[in-house]
Structures are given as structure tokens and as C-alpha cells.
Write a structure and sequence with these properties.
The complex is a heterodimer of chains A (552) and B (304). With 552 residues, chain A is mainly alpha-helical. Chain A is built from 24 helices and no strands. The chains are: A mainly alpha (552), B alpha/beta (304). Chain A: The chain crosses the membrane at residues 38-56, 101-121, 142-164, 176-198, 210-230, 258-278, 317-334, 363-386, 407-437, 449-472, 479-500, 520-543.
Chain lengths: 552, 304
């Protein structure tokens, strides 16, 4: 573990000028390292806003369509996932974009800020690269300073790009600038939060986890506050405890208030100052929170390749279960407001949900498909972690014991397959419970459970196909995202885009049926299951024959 | 008795790079065999073929009498392996990993495991991500040494260990040998292998260039001597086995073949030696001296 050996002589570290020596060079170096990541984040967030704007344009054809949206977004559930709904009583497109979708972009900007700071500070220290840098003529605070300048630059750029995007669509320039600035402010605030959390733990994942938890808390606080505000009773002041809330309280295109951003800016500066202060109190490479010891012995059940695979996937499964349960409850509780709102929603949207007679079943079937795709993401990530086991050299000592490659691979895939089934069960239960409470119809729980579980074989096929790609050519694994991408397009945009049937049926998710809107196709379920097993067999045959990747 | 390891004319290529080129290696059962070679010579590739992790392109490989590719699982019950670069799961403790490996191999001896943890001074309650390189190495070593197996395959097992732990390691290898186990010990440090190995094979660019007992390889161990004497050292020049004698102002340097070291030291005594430094040759020097062709340029810089 790194120690204090690279610390600069005490006398040299005292003046501020010395402590930030080398900041400029480091900043240029970071920009060089982030030559893909920097434009990906900044342009990506601007593109996301453009996408929301374009999508809204296609859905909303008339003022009546806009009113239909208000009914949904003005409800408490809409406020939770949108915002306080400033000016929604006299809705315009730009007010809806800023008030409903601005939240997603602000959360994205917050993620950008915190991940950028963790990447260039704690992650560098953990990898040992920062030690090399600090051994050169570089001040103690140069790394943090350069990182914060980088994060601030990204935040400003995102703000300008989004302001430009909105202004170019003909929306009010002043409001567009304010909207852009409020998004950038969220990025800045969470860069400040991360400047604190990176001082606390030795591990980059823990640092981004803590900052991410702060982001989640900020989301929930303003969600509760906004719900209260929309209902006209309750603790609406909660929104003012959240950096995202400050960004939303600017009310672009309505009140056009700039002053809440002063709070954001002050918060970012204060958090950054705390970060500097904490960094002075710790050794290089160390955290302020010491790591906890674990068990010196393995539990009795940790005695088979399957048990090991379960142990390695366990943390991720717990995280996914919690996230899907919460998301399920939230989306389920949307059900009644949505039904009320969709009664006079735009036609295309209604068509997507299966037409006006089947709105409830359509919405619930749609949720099941969505969760199927999300759990598909879990399956692909699980295979990626298997690949990392091999690439990082952790599979080698396991395979040097009495464990065959077939059993090793089967253990991991079996855990992921059971995990996928479990996650669909949890998601179905969450949405079912949420919908049952929202509509007062307990029977929905059973229907949703069935609708979700029915998608399991499709997820299994994604899982085993990913495994086969990994077995044949580990580097090509990202190709499998195409399957999920197509599943998303086929599931969501088929009615709008006029995709031919044959092309639709290439997606494994298009065969089972979106229960309860459609019946479950039992033949498709069996065929997909058998096919998954066959594809997995092929993966085993391939991995038995090839050389194992080594680190050396 | 059948040899524990019997490799004949083994070839292995990675793309256009030829890693092993007609490698022959025999390790007798119950011996400690030093597998010596510079980095990148093919030591790890050989061991990974013995483990059935890589497939041989050509040649014959027998491990404990079986084919390591086809019978990997059965063979792995009878051997333990320590990689040169140990990677652990970040959120499993060292103790969990040791227990897991022992169980996956089929047998575990908790008493011996605890004793080894103590001897190697390892805290088994720390998480994998908090261990230094040396401590990760200890985890793999304890897992291997605690298991009751016939063969130990050790790939540069002490790369991250300090001298104290190196001594513990040597003790453990001697115990393993006394228990009748076979050990294949790969290393790029001659001195380490010298103290442990009954037999040594030197690999270079995928081929075994020298194999035999330490005495057989005596001619390879030419020692560098650096001495300050009161009297002129010219008489050393006539001594057989002395090479490259240089002297200025009573400071003399020369190299001497291993089996003539005693005579040379005796002669130095007669010359009223005041100071004496004796250095064993490095592997690089050896290879340079005996097989130096491509190595000359790289090696010359290191020796100078």
C-alpha cells in the first residue's frame, strides 16, 4: 500500500502556489485521457435533450395533445418523476421539456460530475498512477484542482450546449440559457460532493457509491417535496434541501429565476473546500474511513464452483433486486394516474399501449417487456463479469483445482439464469404491488407476476447467446448489446416506425406476448428455453477447446 | 518410477510468436526441480500447458502419468499451483480464498492451514483488495502448501516476498520434499533455485539449454571475486579456473569457476587479503556467457 513517502517536504507544501504546481499540465493530461469520454458525456447529454424534444414533437400535434400530457404530469406520481410542474396550468412544449424531462438530464449531469471527479482522483490514487505523478514536480492539491477545473468545464459546456439546443428550436433565449445553466449547476454540485467522498474511502467504487447515494437522496428529497407542492399540502420545502431541487426551482420559461443557482454554486464551492480540508488530514492513498476486516474462514457452504459463482454474483444481485423492487413499486403506482391521464392522451401513445379499450392491460404488458429488457441488461453484465474473471487471472487458479471448464462456466451461467428469473419475479412483485395499491385491484399482482416471469426464456436466450459470444471471441462480447437494442426498438417503436413483422420477430422478446394484453405463447416459451440450452451447450463445447487467456 | 513430469519436443505458438520450441523436460518423482530462465523464456507457458489451461501445438506431455489436457480435473486433485501474479477477488478475504481452493481441490487440513498462516504471518481476515502483492502471493502459497498433493507447480512463487518470508518458504519446500512431494519451482533467480533444487533445467527462448544436478552445472557457476591484497596478485594468474584477472593498486578483480573457488581463496589468504567480496553469477551473466548471441547487446549493458 502506498504510504507517505511521496509527500513533498513540509516547507515546500505550505504556500498555495506550491500546492497547485503542475495543475495546468495535469489538466492537459486529463483532457488527453478523456478525449473520448469528455465529448461523449457533454454531447451525449445535449443529444438526450434533443431526443426528448424531438420525441415530444412527434407525439404532440395539437394543443389538445398538450393538455392530455398535463393530466398525467401534473399528478403527484408525475411530480415524483418529473418536477414541481411550474407553469403546467398554461403548458407549452418548452415548459413541459424543462419541467418533465429536465430532471433526467440534471441527474445525468450529476453523474457526469461525480464520476469525473472519482475517475481522476481516487481511482488514480488506487491504481498507483497518481503516486508516479506526485513524485514529480506536482503540488499536493494539483490533482484535485485540475480535476475540479475539468469537471467545471464539462458542466459549463453541457449547460451551453443544452441552452443552444433549446434556443435553436425557437424557445425563449433567456429561458434556454437558464435551463442550460441549471443542468450545468447539478453537474457542478455533485462534482463537489465527490470531492468530499473521494477523501473518505480508499476505494473508487466506494467513493462513487457514496456520491451516487447522495445523488439518489437528492432525487428522492425533491421528489417528495415536488409531490407535496403539486398536491398543495405537505412538506414542499424538502425540494430546497436537494441540489437537483435548486436546479428545478429556477423554473425556466416560467419564472426565470436565476438566484437558486447561487445556492448550487455556493454548495459546490463549500463541498470543494471541505474536500481540500479533508485531503490535508489524510495520507496519500489512504482514506479517512478505515477498511473493515472480514471472516478469516470461509463459510461451510462455500465449497463448490456453484457456491463460488453465487458468492461473486451475490452483491450485484442484491443491488439489482433492491433497484428493481423500488422501480417496480414506483412505476406500478403510476398506474391509476396514467389511466386517468391517458384517457385524452395523443393517439400514437394510446396505440402503443394497445388502444383505448385495453389501456390498463397495455400499460402493464409494456412494463413487463421493459423489465424483461432491463433484466436482459443484468444478464449481459453477468457474462461480462465472467469474462473479467478470465481476463484478470482469477479463473486460472480455480481451473487449476479439480474444477472443469464446463462446470466453471455452467456455475456462473446457472447463477445468472436463476438470478434473471428471481429479478423478474421481484420486478413483477414490485409493479404488481404498486399497481394493486394504485388501482385497488389485488388481482393485478398475479397477472403481473405471470407477465414478468413469462419473459424469462427470452432473457435466458440473451444470456446464453452472450455466453457463446464470450466463449468464441471474448473481445466481441459487446456485440450482444445489439440484441437488447433491437428488443427495445421492436418493443417500443414498432407501431410508430412501421417495422416489418419479419424484422420484429428477430427480437427474442417479440414471441412471448405482452401479458396481460396478449396471451402467453407457450410454444414460444418452450422453444426459447430449449434454444437457450442448446446455445449454452455450444458455448461449453467452444470453451473446452480454446486456450485460456492469461494475464502475462 | 515414472517421472512426475515428462515433456518431449513440446511446441506452442501464440499467433506468430513461438513461445515453446521443442522443449524437453523430465522431473523425477520426489525431487525439487528448478526451472530457471529469464522473463519471457516460456516458463509460465510450460506450466500453463501442464495445467491444461493451454493446449500444446505439438509434442508429448505426461503429467503424473496422464495427459494434462484430457485428464485435467483428475490430475488437479493431485497437484497444487501457485501463479506468479496472484489475483484475488476484491471482496473475499484471504482466509475464505484459502479454504475455497482447498475444498475445490478435494481436501483440507485446517490445522496445517492455521499453522501456515502463522508461519507466513498472514492476516486471513483482510479482504482481497487490501492485500499487497506479497500478501496475495502468501494466500496462494498457503492454499497450495496446506493441501495434501503429490505435485506442486510453483511459478515464481516468491516474487513479492521479503527475505524473512523467503526463508519460511524454503523451509516449507524442504518439508514438502521430505513428505515425498515433487516440486517444480520456476524462477529467474539462480541463487533461489540453487539452495532448494536437486535438479535444474535452464530454459531460454522456449528451449531447454541445460539440465542436470547442481554439480553437473558447476561449470556454469563462475563466481566474481573482488579483493584488496597487500602483496601483488600476479601469482593468481597461473591458477587454473581463474579468468579476466585485472589489478590496480592492490585492488584485484577476477572470475573463477565454481570448482576452483577454494584454491583461489586459499591463494588470496597467502597474499594477505584485506577485503573480499564474492558474488555469485546472475542468471543473465550465465546465459550471456554460455549462450550469448541475441542476448549480447541487452546483457552487455546490464553487466557493464
Amino acid at each position: 500500500m502506498a504510504t507517505t513517502t511521496v509527500r513533498r517536504p513540509a516547507a515546500a507544501g505550505l504556500s498555495a502556489g506550491n500546492a497547485v504546481t503542475g495543475t495546468g499540465t495535469l489538466l492537459r493530461f486529463m483532457l488527453r485521457r478523456d478525449r473520448i469520454r469528455f465529448p461523449a458525456w457533454t454531447l451525449g447529454l445535449a443529444l438526450l435533450m434533443t431526443y426528448f424534444a424531438t420525441a415530444l414533437d412527434t407525439i404532440v400535434q395539437s394543443p389538445a395533445d398538450l393538455e392530455g400530457l398535463t393530466a398525467f404530469s401534473g399528478s403527484p406520481a408525475g411530480a415524483l418523476f418529473g418536477g414541481p410542474g411550474f407553469g403546467f396550468d398554461n403548458l407549452t412544449i418548452e415548459r413541459f421539456l424543462a419541467g418533465q424531462y429536465g430532471l433526467h438530464v440534471a441527474v445525468g449531469a450529476g453523474l457526469m460530475g461525480l464520476l469525473t471527479v472519482v475517475r481522476h482522483t481516487r481511482a488514480e490514487e488506487r491504481s498507483g498512477r497518481a503516486e508516479l505523478i506526485r513524485a514529480n514536480v506536482v503540488g499536493r492539491h494539483a490533482q484535485l484542482t485540475a480535476t475540479l477545473i475539468l469537471a467545471a468545464t464539462m458542466a459549463v459546456l453541457v449547460g451551453l450546449l443544452i441552452a443552444g439546443t433549446m434556443a435553436s428550436r425557437g424557445f425563449d433565449v433567456g429561458g434556454s440559457l437558464l435551463f442550460g445553466a441549471s443542468i450545468g449547476a447539478a453537474g457542478l454540485a455533485f462534482a463537489g460532493v465527490a470531492a468530499v467522498t473521494v477523501q473518505l474511502s480508499e476505494y473508487p467504487r466506494a467513493a462513487s457509491g457514496m456520491a451516487g447515494a447522495a445523488l439518489g437522496a437528492a432525487f428522492v428529497l425533491r421528489g417528495l417535496g415536488d409531490m407535496a407542492a403539486v398536491q398543495g399540502s405537505g412538506p414542499s420545502w424538502l425540494s430546497w434541501l436537494s441540489p437537483i431541487g435548486w436546479s428545478q426551482q429556477t423554473a425556466p420559461y416560467v419564472h426565470n429565476r436565476w438566484w437558486p443557482l447561487a445556492i448550487s454554486l455556493g454548495f459546490a464551492v463549500a463541498a470543494g473546500t471541505v474536500g481540500y480540508a479533508l485531503s490535508r488530514r489524510r495520507d496519500f492513498g489512504a482514506g479517512l474511513v478505515p477498511p473493515r476486516p472480514g471472516s478469516p474462514r470461509a463459510a461451510a457452504w462455500l465449497a463448490s464452483p456453484f457456491a463460488l459463482a453465487f458468492r461473486l454474483h451475490r452483491a450485484s444481485l442484491i443491488g439489482w433486486s433492491a433497484a428493481l423492487l423500488v422501480a417496480g413499486l414506483a412505476y406500478g403506482s403510476f398506474t391509476q394516474p396514467l389511466l386517468d391521464g391517458l384517457a385524452d392522451a395523443p393517439e400514437d401513445l394510446v396505440a402503443l399501449m394497445g388502444g383505448s379499450e385495453n389501456l390498463l392491460d397495455g400499460y402493464l404488458g409494456m412494463m413487463a417487456l421493459t423489465m424483461g429488457l432491463v433484466v436482459g441488461v443484468y444478464a449481459v453484465l453477468a457474462v461480462q463479469s465472467v469474462r473479467a474473471e478470465e481476463a484478470d487471472g482469477r479463473a486460472e487458479p480455480v481451473l487449476a483445482t479439480a474444477v472443469s471448464r464446463a462446470v466453471w462456466l455452467a456455475s456462473h451461467v446457472a447463477v445468472a439464469a436463476i438470478g434473471a428469473l428471481w429479478l423478474l419475479l421481484v420486478a413483477g412483485l414490485g409493479i404488481g404491488a404498486g399497481a394493486a395499491i394504485s388501482t385497488d385491484d389485488a388481482g393485478l399482482i398475479g397477472e403481473l407476476l405471470l407477465g414478468h416471469l413469462a419473459h424469462t426464456p427470452a432473457v435466458w436466450l440473451v444470456l446464453t447467446a452472450a455466453t457463446l459470444v464470450y466463449a468464441v471471441a471474448p473481445r466481441a462480447l459487446p456485440v450482444i448489446w445489439v440484441v437488447l437494442g433491437w428488443g427495445l426498438i421492436a418493443g417500443y417503436f414498432a407501431p410508430i416506425l412501421d417495422i416489418p413483422d419479419a424484422a420484429l420477430r428477430l427480437s427474442p422478446f417479440e414471441h412471448i406476448g405482452e401479458y396481460p394484453l396478449e396471451d402467453i405463447n407457450l410454444i414460444a416459451v418452450s422453444v426459447l428455453t430449449v434454444l437457450s440450452a442448446a446455445v449454452f451447450q455450444a458455448a461449453v463445447v467452444v470453451i473446452r477447446r480454446r486456450d485460456l487467456a492469461g494475464r502475462a | 518410477m515414472n517421472p512426475a513430469i515428462d515433456i518431449y519436443h513440446l511446441d506452442k505458438s501464440f499467433g506468430r510468436v513461438k513461445a515453446l520450441d521443442g522443449l524437453d523436460l523430465r522431473v523425477a518423482t520426489g525431487t525439487v526441480h528448478g526451472f530457471l530462465g529469464p522473463n519471457g523464456a516460456g516458463k509460465s507457458t510450460t506450466i500453463r500447458i501442464l495445467l491444461g489451461l493451454l493446449r500444446a501445438d505439438a509434442g508429448q506431455v505426461r503429467l503424473l502419468g496422464s495427459d494434462p489436457w484430457a485428464d485435467a480435473v483428475t490430475l488437479h486433485r493431485r497437484l497444487a499451483y501457485v501463479p506468479g501474479d496472484v489475483e484475488l477477488w476484491p471482496n473475499l478475504t484471504g482466509g475464505e480464498v484459502i479454504d475455497l481452493f482447498a475444498r475445490l481441490r478435494g481436501g483440507t487440513d485446517p490445522v496445517r492451514r492455521d499453522e501456515l498462516c502463522q508461519r507466513f504471518d498472514l492476516d486471513p481476515s483482510k479482504k482481497g483488495r487490501t492485500y499487497s502483492k506479497g500478501n496475495r502471493q502468501k494466500v496462494a502459497l498457503i492454499a497450495a502448501l496446506a493441501s495434501d498433493v503429490e505435485l506442486l507447480l510453483l511459478d515464481e512463487p516468491t516474487a513479492g516476498l521479503d527475505p524473512l518470508m523467503e526463508a519460511v518458504f524454503q523451509e516449507c519446500i524442504r518439508e514438502a520434499k521430505d513428505a515425498g512431494r515433487t516440486v517444480l519451482l520456476s524462477s529467474h533467480i539462480l541463487a533461489q533455485v540453487e539452495v532448494l533444487a536437486d535438479q535444474i533445467s535452464i530454459i531460454r527462448q522456449g528451449t531447454i539449454v541445460e539440465t542436470g544436478s547442481l554439480t553437473d552445472l558447476r561449470h556454469l557457476t563462475r563466481t566474481s571475486v573482488d579483493a584488496i591484497t597487500d602483496r601483488p596478485a600476479e601469482s593468481l594468474r597461473d591458477l587454473s579456473g581463474v579468468h579476466n584477472l585485472r589489478s590496480e593498486d592492490g585492488h584485484i578483480r577476477f572470475e573463477v569457476d565454481g570448482d576452483h573457488l577454494a584454491a583461489a581463496v586459499r591463494r588470496l589468504g597467502d597474499l594477505d587479503v584485506q577485503g573480499l567480496t564474492v558474488r555469485p553469477p546472475t542468471l543473465e551473466q550465465l546465459l550471456l556467457r554460455h549462450y550469448g548471441d541475441q542476448l549480447v547487446h541487452k546483457g552487455a549493458a546490464e553487466v557493464a
